[in-house]
Amino acid sequence: MTDSTSSSSKNKNNVHDKFFRASMGHQSVAIDFIQHNFPKKITQALNISTLKLLQQSFINKDLQEYCSDIVFSCELANKPAYLTLLIEHQSTPDKMMAFRIHQYLFGLLGNHRKQYPKKLLPAVYSLVFYHGKTTPYPYSLSLQDCFDDPLNIMSEVLYQDIGLVDVNQLSDEALKQQEWIGPVTRALKHIRQQEMTPYALEILASLHWPMSKYEAKEMLCLLLNYLFREGNIKDIDSFIASSSEQLSSPIRSEMMTFAEQMEARGIQKGIEKGIKKGIEKGMQQGMQEGKLKGEIRLLEKQIKLKFPDTKSVSLVALSLDQLELIGQRILTCDTLEDVLEGIISV
Q1: Would you state the pLDDT for residue 268?
Q2: Are 144 and 227 in a shared domain?
Q3: Contact between residue 122 and residue 80 where contact means Cβ atoms under 8 Å apart
Q4: Which of 60, 91, 131, 192 is 20 to 30 A from 329 in CA distance terms?
Q5: How far is CA 276 from CA 204, 283, 291, 297, in A?
Q6: What is the distance between the alpha carbons of residues 8 and 2, in angstroms, rounded to a whole number?
Q7: Residue 109 lies in a domain
């Protein structure tokens, strides 16, 4: 299609669009259209006196090529609602129209949500107005038919409750049967306990990971890092002492290596030294320095453990915020370069 032909087609569509929109701007015409074309359930519940044509359009750039909209606010069964008309102004019908309609509806609802963030969303009914050359309308207007879905998965996604895993509702006994994800889930479930020690020991004691494999060692490192850094383990000495009786030899060996290398107690010792030094330099500065030194020791050991083949890295010149960022990245990044990106060049 040439530019002139395309422009001519758009102008014609605009003429049709303007005529219909202008007509629907008259209350009597709009009410008559709704009563004859909308479901009886809606027309019977509609409070006609509340019907109001909105001047705002909710069509985004992706939809402008395909349709325009007419939106009415109203009350249905004494509750606020919207009735919308999508006017398809293409000469060729769009087989993805059902998907575009739902894009449009969620855009409208998203706008409403911004205006009224504490209220439930209103009901919205949308109807497509079509007067193209091809008739009857050749495509399905069911959203489900927009998917290549031989297993019919989308019928569950679209028309049933969204799936949810609430870790707090999962029993520890059931999670113990899940070899890999079970310990991870249990750690997340109990991490906010006021005293994490018994839970952490039980999680570690139930591990059945093959510690001869690199993946198992890496996962144990991640688990220990999470438990030590985020869990409220008040007495690390008692934790390590108790582990000798409860943990298997391979798990305990890996944990001890981890504990020694990261110098878990270095944070507390660093804070204590900082507090003593703070007598001369100021208590706040001393605590900050102690925490900083402890954090540096911890992170340098963690880096050495996770990336044993890389050269040593000094973190002495970094701020506490930068150190905390590195601590977060160690959990998820696969290379030392990714951990230190934007902080230190390796």
Answers
A1: 54
A2: no
A3: yes
A4: 192
A5: 36, 8, 13, 19
A6: 10
A7: yes
d(CA 168, CA 190): 8
pLDDT digits (tens, 9 = 90+) for 70-124: 999 999 999 999 999 888 766 668 889 899 899 999 999 999 999 999 999 999 9
Q: Looking at 108, 138, 159, which one is the last position of a domain?
A: 159
In a domain, 128, yes or no: yes
Q: Quick check: is 346 in a domain?
A: yes
- Decide if 258 is inside a domain: no
- Please give the residue range of the domain that contains residue 224: 169-253
Token pair in block for residue 7: 């422009």
Rounded distance, CA 41 to CA 240, Å? Answer: 68
Please state the domain count of the chain: 3
Q: Which residue has the tokens 């900083």?
A: 292
| pLDDT tens profile 85-97 | 888 766 668 889 8
Q: What is the C-alpha to C-alpha distance for residues 123 and 331, in angstroms, rounded to an integer?
A: 43
